Structure formats: C-alpha cells, structure tokens
Amino acid sequence: MGTGRGTGKCLYMIGGPMGVGKTAACRQLQQMLDRSVFLDGDWCWDAHPFQVTEETREMVLENIAFLLNRFLRCTAYDHVIFCWVLHRREIWADLFRRLTEPYTLRAVALVCTSETLRTRLEGDIRAGVREPDVVNRSLVYLPLYSTLDVRRLDVTELTPRETAAHILAATEKEREP
Question: What is the pLDDT of residues 17-72, one digit of tens each?
Fold first, then answer.
C-alpha cells in the first residue's frame, strides 16, 4: 500500500476480520492521540436488513470516503482513525482513490489465531452483539490479511489498550528517518 500524500495529518487505517478487536483498539488509540477522531466503517452501513449489492457497496465506499475527507480537511483533528474489515486489496485501493485530502498513512491489519477469533466471536454471540453466522465468515477472512501489503499485528495475547500501544509504536518507527 502507498503512504498517501504526506502532510501533518495522520490517517490510521486499521483492518481485520470481524471480532478481532478493531473497534475496541481504535477507541483506545483515540484516547492516546490528542486531536483525534474515530470512524468505524460499519457505522456507514448499519442497515436492517443488511444487504450486500453493487449499489450498497458503492454507497458505503462513498460514505466512508466523504467522512474521511471531511475529517482530514478539518483543522480540529491531527489524527484520523478508521477501522473496517478491509480484507481485500481492491477495497484499500478504492478507498485510497477516493481520498482527496493530504494525509500520511499508518496502515495495520489486526490478526489473531483462529481459536482466539472463534472464542471472541462466541462471546459476542452470547452477549447478543453478533449473529452466529459471523464465526464462519470471519474465519474465512482471517487468512486474507496475509496477502495484503500492510503491517500485520497479532493481537492474540493483547488487550485493546496493548493493541493500541503496539499500533502507535509500530507507526512511530515508520516516521523515523
């Protein structure tokens, strides 16, 4: 993946399968970064019934790009944090193509063992947060992250706060000359 168009604005793009802990880690990252704003891609496609069609795919990409561009343009924020499943290279490329505001990219894919992913998802199902069909879909997505050209972070043994700290540490190294 490219590094975006450099500026003082930093765009954190956090991908990973459903249930890996993206939202929880991004909420922690938001607390660690002053002047930050957080967008979960799921918020741009929260419909009932959930329908995946060409029209709804295009709509969600337009929604996400619009909000990211507005956040990147806004002088109140230095850090824009975005998470979504982002399991295919084409999705990353499509989003990058739609971003018109300058930014420095910090991209990470969160992964974990299939056992850990299953356990986390089953806990969410018991809590009524997810539907049972998510387990198989998420497990199918998990190996796709190894094909992406982004840093992968294994969060099997990490809490959301530890995950956020690792993201910061990894992306700080990228900033060093």
Answer: 999 999 999 999 999 999 999 999 999 988 888 888 999 999 999 999 999 999 99
Quote the CA–CA distance of 16 and 108 in Å, as a whole number. 8
Supply the pTM of this predicted model. 0.91
pLDDT in tens, 111-135: 999 999 999 999 999 999 999 999 9
Torsion from C-alpha of 114, 147, 150, 97, nearest 10 degrees: -120
β-pairing, 79-83 vs 151-154, is unpaired
What CA–CA distances, in Å, run from 47 to 1, 111, 130, 150, 173? Answer: 30, 26, 14, 29, 39
Beta bridge partners of 37: 80
For residues 19 and 26, give the distance between their C-alpha atoms in angstroms, rounded to a whole number. 13
**Strand segments (E) across the chain:** 10-15, 36-40, 79-83, 104-111, 151-154
b/e per residue 55-83 (b: at least 16 CB within 10 A): eeeeebbeebbebbbebbeeeebebbbbb
